[in-house]
Amino acid sequence: MSSFMGRILKAATFGESHGPGLGVVVEGAPAGLALDESRVQIELDKRRPGRSPHASARREPDKVEILSGVSAGRTLGSPIAMLVRNQDARSGDYAELARSFRPGHADYAYWRKYGLPPQPGGGRSSGRETLARVAAGAVARALMEPLEVGFAAYTVAVGQVAARRVDRAFALGDPLRAADPDLAAAMAEEIQTARLEGDSVGGLVELAVDNPPAGLGDPVFGKLDALLGGAMFSIGGVKGVEIGAGFAVAGRRGSQNNDQMGEQGFLSNHAGGILGGVSTGEPIVLRLAVKPTPSISREQATQDLEGRAVTISIKGRHDPCLCPRVAPVAEAMAALVIADAWLVQRALERSRP
Amino acid sequence: MSSFMGRILKAATFGESHGPGLGVVVEGAPAGLALDESRVQIELDKRRPGRSPHASARREPDKVEILSGVSAGRTLGSPIAMLVRNQDARSGDYAELARSFRPGHADYAYWRKYGLPPQPGGGRSSGRETLARVAAGAVARALMEPLEVGFAAYTVAVGQVAARRVDRAFALGDPLRAADPDLAAAMAEEIQTARLEGDSVGGLVELAVDNPPAGLGDPVFGKLDALLGGAMFSIGGVKGVEIGAGFAVAGRRGSQNNDQMGEQGFLSNHAGGILGGVSTGEPIVLRLAVKPTPSISREQATQDLEGRAVTISIKGRHDPCLCPRVAPVAEAMAALVIADAWLVQRALERSRP
Amino acid sequence: MSSFMGRILKAATFGESHGPGLGVVVEGAPAGLALDESRVQIELDKRRPGRSPHASARREPDKVEILSGVSAGRTLGSPIAMLVRNQDARSGDYAELARSFRPGHADYAYWRKYGLPPQPGGGRSSGRETLARVAAGAVARALMEPLEVGFAAYTVAVGQVAARRVDRAFALGDPLRAADPDLAAAMAEEIQTARLEGDSVGGLVELAVDNPPAGLGDPVFGKLDALLGGAMFSIGGVKGVEIGAGFAVAGRRGSQNNDQMGEQGFLSNHAGGILGGVSTGEPIVLRLAVKPTPSISREQATQDLEGRAVTISIKGRHDPCLCPRVAPVAEAMAALVIADAWLVQRALERSRP
Amino acid sequence: MSSFMGRILKAATFGESHGPGLGVVVEGAPAGLALDESRVQIELDKRRPGRSPHASARREPDKVEILSGVSAGRTLGSPIAMLVRNQDARSGDYAELARSFRPGHADYAYWRKYGLPPQPGGGRSSGRETLARVAAGAVARALMEPLEVGFAAYTVAVGQVAARRVDRAFALGDPLRAADPDLAAAMAEEIQTARLEGDSVGGLVELAVDNPPAGLGDPVFGKLDALLGGAMFSIGGVKGVEIGAGFAVAGRRGSQNNDQMGEQGFLSNHAGGILGGVSTGEPIVLRLAVKPTPSISREQATQDLEGRAVTISIKGRHDPCLCPRVAPVAEAMAALVIADAWLVQRALERSRP
């Protein structure tokens, strides 16, 4: 399923790393929404590689073309198709890899699934697919804009360096999306060290949805945490997701963890804005564990397609830390989930007798 | 959405805590599968309350009746409807709660969503809904049985007590599903202490899928980790999910985290059996962070339906630790996800030219 | 797919002719809707067999029990499960059929699909499955009631007797649902003649949706005619569906067929209330071609399970004309389609900037 | 819903008549299928306008570009995106229409739905959207090719001229897709006469699926006739669909209509290849009633956007008979439905114990 399948909002993504292009068809957005290419481009520019020394050196303008569904800066209610052409695709870097499985990559699993050898640049498994998500997310953001719902993701840990505070304005301008201005340099250093050692490093991304409508999410399988959690796990490299207090709840007592209420509302937000699978109106907060980039130049043991033990050293242009790339994608996925849940809730809310 | 929506396998659950009953309609199971009420009952008995001093004192036989889709011990290919009647529903315990929101419960969020006051026993938000999942999971298990795919979940931490080893056979017989025989008593003690203090305690559940087929899961939104992760987050009380090395990846280097391969296959399984969203054939391992039971007898601050600050002390029969209740549900959800992914993969595999 | 899969409204049906019971789980109805068993029973009574000499002699009370989703006469927003127990199931009548395929029945096709011999009473292919649809339709009707949308179906032809006018009030009280009071007796006669000859007879059912909201239906695959047409073809025995002028359009000129407009709106309704797949607000009118009941006592040639040529004479209790049974089912299906399309339209309408 | 939503095979279409282009993203096709642009182009050329004097004079090369999912002439298992750019879009023809509703068109209904005035060339409601269906259908055909399943549609009536026999080879080469070589000229004459009178004419299209696998379709809502019927009604201008004997069944006795069997199989095919909603393996036959093209140059009464009565005479390039345009689209829709049903059946067939 390369389609995000909300109940009303849907997004069918497509494209391979070294094919003609990538894109998405978004369905279910209402007519009359303000949208044009520049609005989508703003979001795409946030995830573009080549913006910093920490990111992949692949140079792609990633200019989006809207093929349908928009006219004169307004949505028509019909599907919004968006296309980004690939330009800087150097298959040469990958040519030597074609006969063996890159550790930590989809290669082996895809080979078992599709019966196909590793594709240039990872084919469909490349991180480039996420630009289609970000383009779709731009539509979802436009939909939620009148409600002033905010989506913000930032890097709260890189390797051994963990943020002590969150400054979102700083993060948005930082090439790493580092949340903590005091530690942004240390995070960059952590990455640079790994890179020089032919290695990569993991990290943590935090996502906040501000000012979410209350009442979103549907028991029992369409719980908002289930929808958001599943969406976050669909992002390549994410190996863990927690909501609100997250894993810390395991060691807590109920009396510590329950969010009590006063006259002004909730006195805490350990729940991360979701109770019983339904949004309370409090900020929704998630954290994502992002694995170290699997492509490293260090020599690794692996198999070739014939099952022989071989070693591999992966050249090419790779981000040594995925966090700054994951952050805008997490925002886009959250926007899609929230926008769809809101459309569904509007339908049911308005049809109550 | 009270329906599990696989692409072929679907399960529409229903029922409230204090209504006539709970159940599920399972669609998409092939004809000819060995199944009868006793097979489903075995699974239901694993999640039944009232089995131990640690669990809720509500006494329910939870006897399942198969209403359709099965004849003479074999599935017909038509929908399999299963019903469990409620018997021991004492609304009295909850009567006093009806006008204020229980902290940590769905009450407030449901009120915002549905415009309804808290329902007896939590209504649809009650943990009793999970019995429908377990019944559905029994069908999925029956489907995967010929392939010898195993689903096992067990408690690996309760409050401050964390298992040091996993003995699955022990866990299955333990009332807490404690994984570590040496620490089962300490875990029970942790719970008992919390209970005596009018409190509850959180924990960790680990889920293992053994011998999974390779090639399951669909990039990019139907990644197996996304499907499993979303399914786990749909279980009440789960606030975090990690796969394989999980949150530990944040602090790792790529050279540590990548699973290298030798001639015999993978040399490690940090990925938890899933690469690029597709199963590799290695065991799939997830861990779930389970929050402390929100219902506690300690006095808590909250609001009533009119928004006035009040205090509440929750009586009634409640599990002080949800882990042993979550474990069989996690197994059931995993079975549903894996069975559906396998059906889809078979379809595509068999139609390859 | 035994589930009606609207985008918001869903209905998972289940049950076999001679199993324990039949029923449905309806999802996506808003909270607060007036609904109880008596409301559903009214609809079920309309399709109940044994009401007239023209109908099957099987005697079933078809009493519905609501298992969930409703409390104190109001929907809770959770799934509404409804169950009807089978009582008068005489498998004996069918015992002799078990080894050969009844002409015009699902037997042979099911055998190719499921690898199973004919089930008692047709199993899942029995017309009894439609009571689950009618129960679900009762929920959809309740949802559309405040908008005063009407759903009416009636018999406009039986064999060679075609109605010349439509009197809906008469039809609702007529055991055949005959539309034309002047010809109701002739229609009954047509059926009685067929029955005496060990035969059965086909007919036409017309369905009208009055006062439908404008704007329902979604180009290009979710066109309202596509949704309604597909829903009508899902009713057993329906071999043709037409909308508005229907098959007559083939012989027409555009100047005859186009619905022109004056100041007061449309001057005609050849389109049957749908243009470009979207409702205009004019009455929606469909006609269904219903095949003669396949179960006849006349001797017919067929095959047995081993592929040998045999003859068969079908005993048992069968309606010699399906029209009066199809009519309430057509109403229910139309209600489900319209209600779901309306929920979707409300979501999009309300979220326009 | 601009997406064809099979359970495994999905196709998200997009594009407006006068926008940058039209296309489709097809998901769920297995890896390894032989496919390239030339294969898709063959199908697109069949529906291209400008091929005959009977068709619209709009000149579009309709060259398809495959953007993803295919490499070296084989599918990758990832989404197959296909794009056709619009070239010959003369909005001028439509400029005068923008303020009033064209009779028989989607204009009024869209205005009620989206709140938007008529778009140039009909926008999303234009028949040009069908080229996306035909492109998707090419993938479905490629999938069914190894099974030698055939899809053929042809014109069996135009206005008052009805074919007496069917010569498919002739039809495929005829600009009208006329089935009857003896009457092709008379059909063309019928159209020419209408055109000269500033009018248009309706007709009938027959669709045959040859050599279909048995066992396709799912009771009770996924019946193959329901899926096919719904798909046919989704084609613009189709106002009636019948299967097998179709509307003729209304006047028949069961003894006439049932398909009896001999040792060699069915002795007739009144059912049109589907019993109980499941394919029997016999040819599947449907007929579609196609309305006369709504765009005519004759003066018609209508409303403008302010609700004032006005008259309209529609210039521009329009097919005076839609049948030859509907035929290839009907083939494509049938191929999509059959291919998806077959994938689902493969999944379930193979998983029987």
Primary descriptors:
homotetramer; 353 residues; alpha+beta; Chorismate synthase, AroC fold; 9 helices; globular
Question: What secondary-structure arrangement, pairings included, does this model have?
Answer:
Four copies of one chain form a homotetramer.
Chain A: E1 3-5, E2 10-15, E3 21-27, H1 37-47, E4 64-66, E5 70-71, E6 74-75, E7 80-85, H2 92-95, H3 107-114, H4 130-144, E8 150-158, E9 161-162, H5 168-173, H6 184-196, E10 203-210, H7 224-233, E11 238-243, H8 254-257, E12 261-262, E13 265-266, E14 274-275, E15 278-279, E16 284-290, E17 300-303, E18 309-312, H9 323-350
Antiparallel strand pairs in A: 1-2, 2-3, 3-7, 4-7, 5-6, 8-9, 8-10, 10-16, 11-16, 12-13, 14-15, 17-18
Helix pairs in contact in A: 1-4, 4-9, 7-9
Task: Give a quick summary of the entry.
Chain A is α+β, with helices and mostly antiparallel strands. In chain A, 28% of the residues lie in helices and 22% in strands.
What does this structure look like?
Four copies of one chain form a homotetramer. With 353 residues, chain A is of the alpha+beta class. Chain A contains nine helices and 18 strands. Chain A has helices at residues 37-47, 92-95, 107-114, 130-144, 168-173, 184-196, 224-233, 254-257, 323-350, and strands at residues 3-5, 10-15, 21-27, 64-66, 70-71, 74-75, 80-85, 150-158, 161-162, 203-210, 238-243, 261-262, 265-266, 274-275, 278-279, 284-290, 300-303, 309-312. Chain A has a five-stranded antiparallel sheet, covered by helices on one side. The first copy, chain A, has a five-stranded antiparallel sheet with strand order 9-8-10-16-11. A two-stranded antiparallel sheet of chain A has the order 5-6. In chain A, strand 8 (150-158) and strand 9 form a beta hairpin. Chain A is globular, with a radius of gyration of 21 Å. Chain B binds chain C through residues 1-3, 10, 12-16, 19-23, 25, 27, 31-32, 65-69, 71, 76-81, 83, 113-116, 119, 123-124, and chain C through 1-3, 10, 12-16, 19-23, 25, 27, 31-32, 65-69, 71, 76-81, 83, 113-116, 119, 123-124. Strand 11 of chain A pairs antiparallel with strand 11 of chain B.
